[in-house]
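This section describes the prediction task in plain terms. A model, or a person checking by hand, is given the sequence of a single protein chain and must write out its three-dimensional structure as a string of tokens. No templates, partner chains or ligands are provided. The sample shown here is typical of the held-out split.
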Amino acid sequence: MIFDTDIFIWIERGHAKAAIMVEHADERFISVQTYLELLQCAQDKAQHDRTKQFLKDFGFRVLPLSENIGHRAAVYIEEYTLSHGLRAGDALIAATATEHNMVLCSSNTKHFKPIKDLKVKVLRP
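The expected answer:
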């Protein structure tokens, strides 16, 4: 399963459902976009270190960008930005999940709902 950035925010806020979802996943992946967002949102170096340690402790693997992911994300932007407000970061995360044929775990269903070829597992905190 690939996890959206919001799942980590819920865990940091102490929501048990998000933590349980991560704990019970057989395999844990994030897109490089999610990794960048997690580091970008850190308040200080200590939070950077905690984030990286959390990802390491739980065996998360970061999936890199590829030409196919970039192309698919661009198609998603063309199809869904004007009609649904899809943003570039979410397009990259969705494209990463789709290209790797993975289920995306997210609580932001409105961000991903229009993407028909994306499989989403919804977290309702």
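For orientation: The mean pLDDT is 95.
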